[in-house]
């Protein structure tokens, strides 16, 4: 029998960006909050002088142990799903701070078009523009309604940047100026302008200068060491939950964090969540934590899986299109970039996770899609994340993978390669979804999460279009040789692409086609909130974190309103 603990006001499942923001906002208002994190404790001191590419980038020290829990994957329903036994397409974080510790820091706002994608697409192009099986829908919230929460996240994190000329309207400037303009970023910017495009500095959670946020948290500027993604920041310059929101919650004395606590069920009775059941993985003990309000703030897969394991909400059925839990899984189309080989050399070893320049001319509906075989688009960027020695050895296409020519080209282009990448949107389809695997289980005997997903013609057309635009920019930059995508094959779970999984517990205006309302409140259980990229009905042409942060701040406001009034929020 599980050990039952005293009730708390709020229990949070997963202490990353979503959980940290919720904890900070609720404890400041006097609520007692317990945060359950299945990974280990983390602090900035853990990363002092630990620029260990092998440990973190190649052996995934900050990631989930796939031998204990993983996901299964199949391209379609006719194929048997198999477990992901080694990391490839995406990386699942683990530990206090979650993916917010080892992210790059690229912090965009989704476009107004994203939040009303169905209605705006039909209005401009007609219903026939949406292919059969594509299940895009409006989010039940507009950009203007979400804008104040974007601003709150950016002020808290100290985002460094400048407004996109083609982006959404802003109520305030970024709190800190853009990152450094390096020679290669200047090369991209000048070339883009000559092509009548609209480049701007990439919005960055790597501080461009020392900054103290509205909560009084002071952090120092980025040192451009080149160890951001897959690494914790030894300076605290990269905004992450451990150095921003979690300390604020702790200072109130009302936030208790329990690490090594793997939540396995949301407990509920008569349409109300009553708490959670978790296993202390250090002892194997099962523990029940009662709470007045339950908030799921873990990663996309675990948010969806917990609802399915707990029997909350109607599971999505791809055959009938009914149900909502597991619906509209999406990813990102990031294979539409190009690589240029130059005669001149660049200092590519230096950098930061979000040191870059980008443009939105081919993002959202900023361009005419009338004669194109896809909707939406993607951002196009060049970035200097720091080329570390083990993982970087780019040579022109056609070069042998061994021998004298390989060695010669490896040396020639070691510091003479620049990439212009695209981050393409991902539209949902009726046959792309998440559910529980009927065959494979984790170490506790619970079914694994199963992904059913593949690239569609929409993705192939989009990737080729964006790759062509990237190649044009590189040629204008002066690249002697340019390699670009010529064909997008089936989705490949083996090769890393991006950790931008979305959907499964999607947001909308009605319980008929969504799992949560625009306060992240579950339609079927009003004291249960689910926060994260699992709420996205589709994925945009940007990194998702800025939008996750905005939704978390809105959810915190909704939880406080529920505490005062009860019922579903409108």
TrEMBL record:
This is GMC family oxidoreductase. Residues 142-332 form the Glucose-methanol-choline oxidoreductase N-terminal domain. PANTHER family: LONG-CHAIN-ALCOHOL OXIDASE. The keyword Oxidoreductase applies. It comes from Paenibacillus sabuli. Signal peptide: none annotated. Pfam families: GMC_oxred_C (PF05199), GMC_oxred_N (PF00732). SUPFAM superfamilies: FAD/NAD(P)-binding domain. Residues 436-552 form the Glucose-methanol-choline oxidoreductase C-terminal domain. One of its GO terms (molecular function) is oxidoreductase activity, acting on CH-OH group of donors. Keywords: FAD, Flavoprotein, Oxidoreductase. Coiled coil: none annotated. Belongs to the GMC oxidoreductase family.
């Amino acid at each position: 029998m599980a050990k039952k603990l005293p009730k708390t006001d709020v229990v949070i499942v997963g202490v990353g960006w979503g959980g940290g923001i919720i904890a900070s906002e609720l404890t400041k208002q006097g609520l007692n909050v317990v945060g359950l994190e299945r990974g280990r404790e983390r602090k900035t001191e853990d990363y002092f002088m630990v620029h260990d590419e092998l440990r973190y980038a190649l052996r995934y020290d900050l990631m989930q142990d796939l031998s204990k829990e993983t996901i299964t994957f199949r391209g379609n329903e006719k194929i048997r799903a198999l477990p992901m036994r080694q990391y490839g397409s995406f990386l699942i974080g683990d530990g206090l701070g979650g993916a917010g510790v080892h992210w790059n820091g690229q912090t965009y706002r989704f476009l107004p078009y994203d939040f009303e994608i169905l209605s705006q697409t039909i209005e401009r192009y007609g219903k026939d523009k949406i292919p059969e099986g594509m299940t895009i829908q409006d989010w039940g919230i507009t950009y203007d309604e979400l804008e104040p929460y974007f601003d709150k996240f950016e002020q808290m994190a100290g985002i460094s940047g400048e407004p996109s000329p083609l982006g959404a309207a802003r109520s305030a400037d970024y709190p800190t100026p853009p990152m450094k303009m390096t020679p290669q970023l200047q090369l991209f910017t000048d070339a883009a302008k000559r092509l009548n495009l609209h480049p701007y500095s990439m919005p960055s959670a790597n501080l461009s200068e020392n900054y103290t946020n509205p909560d009084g948290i002071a952090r120092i500027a980025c040192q451009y060491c080149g160890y951001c993604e897959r690494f914790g920041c030894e300076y605290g310059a990269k905004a992450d939950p451990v150095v921003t929101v979690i300390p604020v919650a702790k200072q109130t004395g009302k936030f208790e964090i329990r690490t090594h606590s793997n939540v396995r069920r949301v407990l509920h009775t008569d349409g109300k969540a009553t708490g959670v059941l978790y296993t202390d993985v250090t002892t194997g003990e099962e523990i029940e934590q009662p709470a007045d309000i339950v908030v799921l703030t873990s990663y996309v897969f675990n948010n969806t899986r917990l609802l399915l394991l707990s029997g909350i909400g109607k599971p999505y059925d791809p055959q009938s299109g009914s149900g909502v839990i597991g619906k509209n899984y999406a990813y990102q189309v990031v294979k539409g970039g190009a690589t240029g080989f130059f005669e001149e050399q660049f200092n590519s070893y230096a950098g930061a996770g979000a040191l870059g320049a980008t443009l939105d001319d081919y993002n959202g509906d900023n361009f005419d899609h009338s004669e194109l075989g896809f909707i939406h688009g993607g951002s196009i960027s060049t970035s200097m994340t720091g080329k570390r020695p083990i993982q970087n050895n780019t040579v022109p296409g056609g070069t042998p993978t061994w021998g004298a020519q390989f060695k010669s080209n490896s040396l020639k282009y070691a510091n003479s390669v620049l990439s212009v990448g695209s981050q393409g949107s991902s539209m949902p389809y009726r046959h792309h979804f998440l559910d529980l695997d009927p065959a494979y289980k984790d170490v506790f005997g619970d079914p694994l999460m199963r992904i059913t997903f593949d690239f569609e013609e929409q993705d192939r057309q989009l990737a080729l279009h964006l790759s062509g635009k990237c190649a044009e920019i590189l040629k204008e930059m002066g690249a002697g040789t340019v390699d670009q995508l010529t064909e997008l094959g089936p989705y490949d779970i083996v090769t890393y692409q991006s950790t931008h999984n979305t959907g499964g517990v999607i947001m909308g205006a009605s319980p008929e086609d969504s799992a949560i309302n625009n306060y992240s409140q579950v339609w079927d259980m009003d004291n249960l909130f689910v926060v994260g990229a699992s709420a996205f009905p589709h994925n945009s042409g940007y990194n998702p974190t800025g939008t996750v942060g905005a939704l978390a701040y809105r959810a915190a406001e909704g939880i406080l309103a529920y505490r005062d009034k009860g019922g579903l929020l409108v």
